[in-house]
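Observation: inputs received (chain + uracil).
Thought: call the complex predictor directly.
Action: predict_structure
Action Input:
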Amino acid sequence: MKIHVADHPLISHKLTVLRDERTDSPTFRHLVEELVTLLAYEATRDVRTKTVSVKTPVIQTQGLKMAEPAPMVVPILRAGLGMLEGMVRLVPTAEVGFLGMVRDEKTLQASTYANRLPDDLSGRQCFVLDPMLATGGTLVAAINYLIERGAIEITAICILAAPEGIAFMERAFENSPASITVVTGALDTKLNEHGYIVPGLGDAGDRLYGVV
Ligand code: URA
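Observation:
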């Protein structure tokens, strides 16, 4: 598994505002979108391209365009939805599938409650959007779901990650034939006893959409 911590000063600045408990939901949503666009720039470094011919006002030349099939972007509901706009702004040709995962707050186990994805993901590059890589349970379950449908190249884009979650994912995909990458804005210190990332930013879903 590859891990990329995108420690760019702009990302660090936006993350610091995001972490601040005084940041309101509209600002939080806006910052998440901006952060995802910056993270997506890193995450799409290996997106597949094809050579095409293009006529400039000066000469016929060759350039690169994104190859088919288009990448599949999969936000994990509910908090991953807040990352979708920032991702599709950068990759407007991407297709979007949805995966609803819920975490039992006692056992911290993740399970699927909804999905809207093609049955066959063979040959697709997939980008999973989940703001908080905490225990790793949700992401491992989501990525396994995509692997079962044939995906072999999967990149998870996370705003924050905990070392425990990264370690859990590394163990889970140690012998996987799929290529798994995690791109995160920061690697935080630890998880607390409630499964929250420390220092973290609290409950990403609640901060995006309010407590429901
Ligand atoms: N999910 C969140 O929203 N926040 C955390 O800190 C951990 C999991």
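Thought: report the result.
Final Answer: The pocket of uracil is lined by residues 79, 132, 134, 195-197, 200, 203-205 (CB under 6 Å). The radius of gyration is 17 Å.
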